[in-house]
Amino acid sequence: MNMAHETLNDCKRPKNDYVNERKQKKKRVESESRQKINGAELQRLKKTPRLSPALFWDDCEIQHKQIYELLKYAALGKAHNAPQPSWCHIHHQKRLRNIAVIILQNLSQLHFYKFYLHFRCIRRLFKHRFRLPPQSSHFIASLVGVDQHDLTNRKTKNPDNHCKSSLDYSDLPGIKAMLAYKEFLLHPTIRKYGEKKQGLTRYLLSTEELRKNDYPVLGSSDIAHFVHSGCTGEVTDSSPLFGLDCEMCLTTRGNELTRISLVAANGQCIMDELVKPDNEILNYMTRFSGITKNMLLPVTTKLKDIQEKVKTLLPSNAVLVGHSLENDLRALQMIHANVIDTALLYAGEQGRKYRLKFLAQAVLGREIQREEVIGHNPFEDAKAALDLAQYFIQQGPGKVAELNVGKILRNINNPNGSLAAQEASSVLQHNGFIHLLNTVTRNADLPATEPSFVESLHSSGRKITYVTEIDDRNNVSPSFEHILCTSDEEVLERACNLIPVSPISVVEFCTRKINSEYNDVLEAKVKSKFAEMMTVFAGPFKKDFCLKSIKREFQSCGPIHSLSIVSETYQPFICIKYCVLEAAKLALENLNETNVNGCWIKVQSLLNCKTLDCEYLISELEEDLENKDVIYVSGFRKPLTEEFLQQQFSHLRDIKAILLPSNEASKKPARHCFLKFQSSQSAILAADYIRAQGGLRCRKALTASHLHRWIQECVNLPPVEQPHNEDIPPKEQDLAVLIKNVDRKISRLYKCLKGNSLCLVLFPGANRSNGKLPGFGFMGIKGS
Asked: Which keywords label this protein (predicted)?
């Protein structure tokens, strides 16, 4: 079977006919679009409110405070100084007509996965979905900001009316300092370099590190035509540093150099030149490089000219500095042994590399690679990398570890829900910039007169309409216009009449019949089903088969959790448990009835009462709004990086995002990825093209981002036993009926919304024997 080539850079590239076909098709589509949409209609479409969520890929979890920020901006906008939420942008907020929040108590993320096929309406209405943390005791208050301070500071009392003790020894100054120092010593920067300042030679990459990170090194088989920089002098702590950055385009031979910038230690640019590639250009990659066809038309400088000039400019003891510099040196086709790589210098846990743009903001307080500027500026990037290296050398590892850039990134992607936690943070965001704080911000420093969300609503003559069932827990607030009902059905009827006319509505269904007693069994059964869907059986093989070669073949479909020999069969069969659902489906589609290890084999999935409807489930997952414009690609021999994937796939038409998943279980870098496109048609064309090139395997995606991490837990579960007590309320079939009823209610409420209305559907979470299940959320703008 075809596998990816030994080196990632050897994967095949597009041919001229593919590029020409894309250009012709693009012109044809643009021409047809211009004929169909006149100027007035286009202007109307441009001003339609819409969402642009930048959800965190690892598990797509959104905090309650982030929901609050979204609702506040949606209702108030810039007119009341409400900030645009960082995790989800609302375009043309002024054109939003209504806001509706639908809350379904006792439902969780688990229920959506278990009854995925029963949620037919909600799956077709909402493309944007996210995970929520387990429900707090003041869920609704945290969403709209009502009495949140009082609720969070209310003391828990025992039956004797005495305050419950909650002494935490970590609050004691000595213990707290000791714990903080222990955490400091475990920081990856401290573990690698120690605490004290050291000279630049300590931060040079070793020969082993150069090889491991794919740098061109003498003796490698793939660099026979590379040129040595000639820098063979002894490097000391006083050797000069030079920042280097290159921009590339895509040619018939792969990535080739189109621009180079070299910056001296004093920040002066000593070289900034355009380069004409030797081979025909297929894609200028303007989005990343900033290079256009017109820019290169008058250029006569070739790669060999640049190589000679670099050799002339660099002294014999020069140290090159760059961010993932191996890509630049390979584009230059040069060998240089003395390197400081800021992507590795500032690496986080498990060697995680941070983007240069983020490090420049977090460490230097500098904004580079602005969104409004097309392409990267190599001088700007080279100087940023150089300054980052100089900062590290001058300040030392201890100071860099104190910055805790990993925590800064987590705060940006997943801001803390509590104000106290944000005050304790060493990072402050303002107007999109990151400012590092030398001191902790105290409550006294915050504006005391800033009105809350509900106060701002009240000042503008608006209130939140709260429709719910009468309950002992009801806490009537003057900030709400309460509509209390006697049943969920009455809640539905009243809400259908109110949400079209109410600016902001919160509709809560109690759904008491969905009992939490069954959740433990339900969770185990769902995860067991996914585990079986990710398991395939292959065979028969010869008795002297090679397990290693079989594993290599099946690994081309995706990450394998375990591989074992089936002992119950006469002829040898292999059981392969995958970590992702797409990998199992690829194995069934691509390796069934093929020759593996000298045997014609069959690849089969497990069939039992739990997996009878799996084919239908797979087809529904493929056509889900979250997945239909996403494809899964595997078959890479080496661990992937974002930089490589951008170079490898940026030429694909209408590509929107490249998603590189993390494996929490194995802690190993992924060798598969997901590619997101502007439309499902573009995704299908890209998948066909990747398959036609050979070497890689590809199919439609099945696991959305919020499901990806959760599903990895499934492969570790033992087989689930059916409950002996069939009278456990509610029975599964009864629960399915309740879920269908919930889905019907959401559909009916959605139909009552006016166009251009923001709607959020929230499953707050549910109880189980060993804690709480996380919640789940859906959002969308009707008519957007």
From this structure: Exonuclease, Hydrolase, Nuclease
Of 213, 367, 373, nearest to 288 (Cα)? 373
Instruction: Tell which of 349, 372, 395 closes a domain.
Output: 395
Please give the sequence-ordered ranges of beta strands (E in DSSP) within 519-610, or none if there are none.
535-539, 560-566, 573-578, 594-596, 599-605
More confident residue, 706 or 560: 560
How far, in Å, CA of 261 to CA of 280, rounded?
A: 23
Positions of E strands within 252-405: 254-263, 269-274, 281-283, 319-322, 334-335, 339-341
C-alpha distance across the termini of the chain, in Å: 45
Domain coverage including residue 763: 48-145+463-515+729-784
| Strand partners for 760 | 101, 779
pLDDT for 15: 43
Give CA 258 to chain center in angstroms: 30
Can you give the length of the chain in residues? Answer: 784
pLDDT at position 445 over 50: no
Q: Which residue has the tokens 């690496």?
A: 347
- Could you give the CA distance from residue 210 to residue 231 in angstroms, rounded to a whole number? 16
- Mean of pLDDT values over 595-603: 90
pLDDT exceeds cutoff 70 at 150: no
Domain count, the chain: 2
- Note whether 374 and 484 are same-domain residues: no
Share of the chain above pLDDT 90, in %: 42
DSSP conformation class of 61: B
What three-state secondary structure class fits 305? Answer: helix
Q: What is the dihedral of CA 435, 437, 442, 447, to 10 degrees?
A: -30
Contact 695, 3 (CB under 8 A): yes
306 phi-psi bin (left φ>0, alpha ψ -120 to 50, beta other): alpha
Same domain, 123 and 221: no
Rounded to 5 degrees, φ, ψ at 379 are -65, -45
What is residue 46's predicted lDDT score, i.e. its pLDDT? 59
Compute the mean pLDDT over every residue in the chain, rounded to the nearest whole number: 80
Residue 491 in domain: yes
216 plus 310 within the same structural domain: yes
